[in-house]
Design a protein that fits this description.
The chain starts with a helix and ends with a helix. The chain folds into two domains: about 80 residues, no CATH class; about 100 residues. The model has no long low-confidence stretch (mean pLDDT about 90). It is elongated, with a radius of gyration of 22 Å. The protein has about 180 residues and is mainly α. Helix content is about 75%, strand content about 0%. The chain is built from eleven helices and no strands.
């Protein structure tokens, strides 16, 4: 991820083709306001990756009008600073590393502002690759490893509690429970 401060300091808006293209496309709106919106967007992105929708919302909360925020986000998408698909893939990867299930992943994608079609396509691909099943089995292994002296019933109870907290659906969790316990 590019450092916004470095980007803003090292590229003069009068000589940078990226900034110039953003400025040209925002010509009908107030150029100074568009420039401030771009700077705010880059600072927000420097702090943390964002979805297009969440960045638009944050820019509006900072006082920029909807049209300017949308135009800035569109321009940032064109030059490759925003990519909802890649952002969503990173969210799914992080969730799977935490042994999360389909319910938790879907909730996290929606919470982060990923639109429904992108989220559902990514979830479908994750199901096709059997990654939610793998996540449930890894969760079961973790429960077993953390409770080596516990009896089967106690470990099973702990697994079901963890599976529910981690957002696994019943079918996947039940399959892992039957095979692992």
């Amino acid at each position: 991820m590019i450092d916004a401060e470095t980007f803003l300091k090292s590229y003069d808006s009068d000589s940078n083709p990226v900034i110039e293209s953003v400025n040209e496309s925002n010509a009908e709106s107030d150029n100074e306001n568009a420039q401030k919106c771009l700077h705010s967007a880059l600072r927000i992105l420097n702090a943390a990756a964002q979805s297009c929708r969440s960045l638009e919302d944050k820019l509006e909360k900072k006082g920029f009008d909807r049209r300017t925020a949308e135009k800035t986000v569109t321009d940032l998408k064109k030059i490759g600073f925003l990519n909802d698909e890649a952002f969503a893939e990173n969210i799914v990867d992080k969730c799977l590393k935490k042994h999360s299930g389909i319910i938790a992943v879907r909730h996290e994608l929606l919470r982060k502002g990923i639109e429904g079609a992108i989220a559902e396509n990514l979830i479908s691909e994750t199901i096709r690759q059997d990654l939610f099943r793998k996540s449930a089995f890894e969760l079961a292994e973790t429960v077993i490893a953390r409770n080596p002296e516990a009896n089967r019933e106690t470990r099973l109870k702990k697994f079901w509690s963890a599976a529910k907290r981690k957002g696994h659906n019943f079918e996947t969790a039940n399959e892992a429970a039957r095979e692992m316990f």
